[in-house]
Structure formats: structure tokens, C-alpha cells
Predict the structure.
Amino acid sequence: MSIAVAEREVLVHSILGDRAANKSLQPGESLFWQGDFPTAVYQVLEGFVKLTWTSPCGRETISELLLPGDVLDLPSCLDGSPYPFTCKAPSNSTARLAVVSRGVLLEDPEMARRCQLRMVQQLRRQRSSRVASPAERVEVRLSRALLWLAESLGEKVGQRVSFQLQLTRQELAEWIGTTTETVIRLCSDWKRRSLIEWDRHFLTLINVQQLGFLGDAA
């Protein structure tokens, strides 16, 4: 997995046009809940949001992280079906979104087309990231998750890539389908082996190549 942070666009301009309003989410705040009916379409402008799914037995897992530029949830907004997931800001950071009402979207075919193109890009990224597959070992899933976050959010200085880890260890565990204790154990082992540094909310990948080997060891 390449770390293409130098090519990442810093400023995100809303594709929802000048009719969009701004919406801010505080850490851990929900934008909408699984089962709610859609009233608007959203685009992430700053920070990121997590999409979570709650099983019938009440277990919550993170199905996807949406980055600046990403759109949500266009399919539900177009056909009026309930949201299949809950959308929240991560526990350690805020997020800012552009928002346009569902009525405005349905009356503006060009806006809908722009949103559809963006959703296609998101789907391609999701399919190519291969972050969390339950059939793979947990160290493979965790290394891919950290590399994905570094590529999406990090700043490269020499051979190191650092970023603000806006997810808690529990959220990391929910995302890759394991326990918080396992994430803590693996990260402690990788710190001891000088693969990563973890200073409060900042994470540095010291040995990206070795983490890439772990991520390819399916």
C-alpha cells in the first residue's frame, strides 16, 4: 500500500453548491441513526465521520469511515428508504459537513449527478482498501487499517508518517472486527518493535515497509 499523502488535496469544496448549509458535529455526536428516514444529503468537509451498524443482538461495528469530500447517504436520499447505518463523529474529534435538503437534491439533476460520481469514487476506494476481512488474521487487519489512515490523513516526514488518530482503541477494534484488548496488545508489541509510536492522540508509523508486509500477509 502506497503512502500518497503529498498528493492529497488539502481544501475540500462542496459539490452541493451555494444552497448548502454547514453542519458541525461534536466528538461522538450522531448525525442520524440507523432506521431514520432521510431528510438531506451530506458531504464531509473537515474531519471524518464513521458509519456504524448495530446487529439484532445490539453489537455495534464500524462499517466505513468517510473522509473530506465524501458524500452520504445518496442511495437512501434518492429512494427515501431508511438509513441502513448510524452516522457519527469519532469520539476524539469534530467534523464539519455541507448539507442540502432531500427536496432540493431531487429537484436538481446536476447536483444528483455530481453526488453519484463522488459515490462511485468512494465505492472504488472502499473495494480497493481491503481494510477489514474477517477471514484474515487480526494483525493483518490492524496493519491495513493504520496504513489506510496514514495514507488518508497523514503527513510524511522522511520515512515516517504521522497523523492525529481520531479513533479510540475501541473504535479501531470495532472497525476491524476484534476486541479492544487485542488492539492494545498488538500496538504495544509494535511499539516495542519500533514499528509505531503512539503519543496520546498522535500515531506515527516508523516502519511503513514492515507494516506493509504485515498487511500483505493474508
